[in-house]
Write a structure and sequence with these properties.
Number of domains: 2
Helix content: 40-55%
CATH superfamily of the largest domain: Beta Polymerase, domain 2
Shape: elongated
Bound molecules: adenosine-5'-triphosphate, magnesium ion
Radius of gyration: 26 Å
CATH topology of the largest domain: Beta Polymerase, domain 2
Number of strands: 14
CATH class of the largest domain: Alpha Beta
Structural class: alpha+beta
CATH architecture of the largest domain: 2-Layer Sandwich
Distance between the termini: 59 Å
């Protein structure tokens, strides 16, 4: 990043602003609006996608203000490639929708617009106001918070400055103007970008109570950008983490995917654990790990996932969830076997129980929970290869994922290596080779390594 970005030229100083915290405490942080001219930063038009530029230009030409904002500006400033482009404008959603035939209005009360260009979707949001001056007993019907401070509705339009201050982190509140190529910074975001730190705008506790998902976003960006979470922003997280249990499971499912598919899954896992944020997402997994189940398989599969993403490959949500819930499944499966259930019914019972509990935390859409179950069930079929079984298993639609899962189990030390290699060779050899391999089979099951969990207690009847 060129040094010059940060030799700020203050072109205009609009006004000072003091943010209030929700508890009536005054937070002595003042912000100045700053403009960073085109020769002082490295955001070039070539880094912005054609569709995003098209939307910005058309809004401008139609007389509206429109800016690139959020990750699009942040990631370019950091020399990275934005995942997507978000645009903020003073045009209303209906006005935006009227300008683009390829757009749709999303959301019921607070509407945003998706402008669709093939696979690329540009999210256009109308400036929103007032979020940092949350007044919990407001009688304004458009902006309501619950008794816990949770923002229930956020429907007030505002000006650009208000829009900046209701955003989460200062580095996410930078606006790029394609008309004069300036960056507008209302919350000292450039300064925090320079120090590589995530700082919430306003009083952290109030902002987390308004929307607990901001705690997950802090961790996600910290892992992805390699940023520190600034001490005051970090301080309340551990204690407030349980507030995530108030978030609808469907939203948490989306957040889990974002957390683990940004290419830094293992680092994200460590941060989630450190800040007590894993428990609201995967309560049964955390309980099982605390009771002695190893989490090596989770780490190993996140390592693999990170490597896949680095190679430009995709990640399947069902594989991710199969791994994240494996310690919980193991604990429940062992518990049932210790209680005398045979292996197979114990597995099926455990699968039902683990999924049933998980969907109370994060939803798992059926199109993912089905394949996830199959990956687990196939773990029992993979050792049984005699006769025609190996061929039947190999033709299962989920064979490939189940085989990958087996390799991860071996790499994580849960089971002795060997079976994975056998399957690797079986897939590579010709028909005669396969016959030979089957006739050489002596034992039916992989040797289990000593279970690295605490000895099972006498059946804890429930
Ligand atoms: P990325 O797209 O790389 O995940 P991003 O910062 O663009 O990162 P988005 O989820 O696309 O994140 O959101 C776009 C912008 O909207 C953010 O940069 C931030 O300014 C604002 N925003 C998103 N979620 C919240 C939230 N929960 N609270 C406050 N502001 C938010
Ligand atoms: Mg974005």
């Amino acid at each position: 990043m060129p040094k010059s970005i940060f030799t700020l030229v203050e072109q205009s100083v609009d006004k000072f602003r003091t943010l209030m915290s929700g508890n009536g405490k005054k937070k002595a942080r003042t912000f100045q609006r700053r403009e960073i001219s085109r020769d002082q930063h490295n955001v070039s038009r070539s880094a912005i996608s054609e569709p995003a530029k098209k939307v910005l230009h058309r809004l401008n030409k139609s007389g509206y203000e429109a800016y690139l904002v959020g990750g699009g500006v942040r990631d370019i400033l950091l020399g990275g490639k934005p995942k997507d482009f978000d645009i903020a404008t003073n045009a209303t959603p209906e006005e935006v929708h009227d300008l683009f035939r390829n757009s749709r209005l999303i959301g019921r009360r607070f509407r945003i617009v998706h402008v669709v260009f093939g696979r690329e979707v540009i999210e256009v949001t109308t400036f929103r106001g007032n979020a940092t001056e949350a007044d919990t007993d407001t009688d304004d019907d458009d902006r309501k918070t619950s008794e816990h401070g949770l923002l229930l509705r956020d429907n007030v339009y505002g000006n650009q400055e208000e829009d900046a201050l209701r955003r989460d982190f200062t580095v996410n509140a930078l606006y790029y103007c394609i008309r004069d190529f300036t960056i507008i910074d209302f919350a000292d975001g450039i300064e925090d970008l320079r120090h590589r730190q995530l700082r919430l705008i306003g009083d952290p506790e109030t902002r987390y109570r308004e929307d607990p998902v901001r705690m997950l976003r802090a961790v996600r960006f910290a892992a992805k950008l390699g940023f520190d979470i600034e001490p005051e922003t970090e301080a309340p997280i551990r204690e407030l983490a349980p507030l995530l249990t108030h978030i609808p499971p469907a939203r948490l499912f989306d957040e889990v995917l974002k957390l683990f598919s940004a290419g830094h899954g293992e680092a994200t896992y460590d941060l989630l654990t450190r800040y007590n944020l894993l428990a609201p997402l995967f309560p049964e997994t955390v309980r099982a790990i605390e009771a002695g189940e190893p989490d090596e398989l989770i780490r190993q599969s996140l390592k693999n996932t990170d490597a896949r993403i680095a190679q430009g490959k995709s990640v399947t949500p069902y594989f991710l969830f199969a791994a994240m819930l494996w310690p919980a499944l193991q604990a429940e499966w062992h518990r049932r076997q210790d209680n005398g259930d045979p292996v197979q019914p114990a597995l099926h019972g455990a699968i039902g129980k683990v999924i049933g509990r998980q969907v109370q935390a994060t939803s798992i859409p059926k199109r993912f929970s089905g394949p996830m179950k199959e990956i687990w069930e196939l773990q029992m079929r993979l050792p049984r290869r005699q006769g025609k079984r190996a061929f039947a298993t190999m033709s299962h639609p989920r064979f490939r994922a189940a085989y990958d899962f087996l390799l991860v189990r071996e790499a994580s030390g849960e089971i002795e290596p060997g079976l994975g290699q056998w399957w690797t060779e079986f897939q590579q050899t010709d028909e005669r080779g396969q016959e030979r391999m089957l006739s050489q089979l002596t034992s039916d099951a992989p040797k289990k390594r000593k279970r690295r969990r605490k000895p099972a207690q006498k059946p804890a009847q429930q």
